[in-house]
Amino acid sequence: MDIFDKFKENRGPLGQYQEVGHGYFLFPKLEGEIQPRMKFRGKEVLTWSLNNYLGLANHPEVRKADAEAAREWGLGYPMGARMMSGQTAKHEELEQQLADFVGKEAAYLLNYGYQGMTSIIDSLLSRNDVVVYDSDSHACILDGLRMHIGKRYVYPHNDIANLETQLERATKLAEKTCGGIMVITEGVFGMAGDLGKLDKIAALKKKFNFRLVVDDAHGFGTMGATGAGTGEHFGVQDQIDIYFSTFAKSMASIGAFVAGERDVIDYLMYNMRSQVFAKSLPMPLVIGAMKRLELLKSKPELKAKLWEIVHALQNGLREKGFNLGRTESPVTPVFLQGGIMEATNVITDLRENYRVFCSMVIYPVVPKGVIMLRIIPTAVHSLEDVEYTIKAFSEVAAKLKAGAYPKEHPKVR
Fold it and tell me: Which domain holds residue 386?
């Protein structure tokens, strides 16, 4: 059999929807300036699907810094991997700024968040080490763990009692293998919006010998008094041994970083294959990240505005009877009941008739019969945007409950 033959019959869990969903439900094109109102298929829509939490993507100071850096440096500099020919003083300067902000000794820039977390896990673990991780961990964590040839234990999402059980198992095994123990969780879980119980996990360090790794992609810039993340929110930032975040959320850019003890960060610099064998982050992205970090630190009103919109949206939806699950962050999931055909009709109605664009999540990410509409509030949304969206959701939910949506794929003009 030709190795490609299997793709004709099995396109994967998402690929099976390609024929009916491509370009609309999957791989949609949002066009225009990055702001609450953009163009979708030539029509203006109110957009709630961009991880632009602080509104920095189109901030005038950011746009100016990006443009000037691109003009001065171009997108090619520096050429080569950091270890060989891609090291610059600006890269080191940004790393120190990030480390200071999140309260760590050192930090290391990464080209991408997903690639970075996967490679961090691969670099830190030996076959003798044992990993304990949250069942709802992001795909980048799960893919990193797939490369670990040692033992791993999973605990049900945020179940601290079960985590303690898994740590007892891990401790016994690590004593036999002469390895260490790593616990991995997220600060903010990006789908449900709830927080990892970092305070309770950190408290277990008094009883067990382990190192804590936290993926805080959605917490950096949004959580904590200064925006330094979910560890700051819980008052346990100093108990996080490896702090990771991406620039793709609050920083509205490309790249990521990992922070921790200098010896550990130095080790990662010399051993992370995703960085050792990859071109250095281009200078305009480094300069742009510096400007974004500066604004994140110097303009607390951005985070305050974000949370004003978050509270108005989430409180308003709950008052209308919507189920938002367990979110404690800006991530706002709205759970409805219905099958995939009804879900596609709901989204089509929202986009075509109400001009509201948000993301749809269906099985297997959520259970069968559940529709999750995922809303991402930002600091550049308005209270009028919130009011209109709540009204649109209320009308659509009423239609769904009344059985108004056909159980077949919608015809999109």
Answer: 6-53+300-401
Are 110 and 178 members of one domain? yes
Collapse the DSSP code of 199 into the 3-class scheme (helix H, G, I; strand E, B; otherwise coil) and give the result.
helix
Choose between 23 and 172: higher pLDDT. Answer: 172
180 falls within a domain: yes
Number of domains in the chain: 2
Would you say 334 and 393 are in contact if contact means Cβ atoms under 8 Å apart?
yes
Cβ contact 104:258 at 8 Å = no
- 117-140 burial by CB neighbour count: b if 16+ within 10 A, else e? bbbbbbbbbeeebbbbbbebbbeb
- Summarised one tens digit per residue, pLDDT across range 148-193 is 989 999 999 999 999 999 999 999 999 999 999 999 999 999 999 9
DSSP character at residue 26: B
Average pLDDT over residues 3-14: 83
Among candidates 188, 209, 206, 208, which has minimal Cα distance to 198? 188
- Contact between residue 193 and residue 326 where contact means Cβ atoms under 8 Å apart: yes
Q: Please name which of 222, 234, 246, 166 lies closest in space to residue 197, comparing C-alpha atoms.
A: 234
**Does 412 score more than 70 pLDDT?**
no
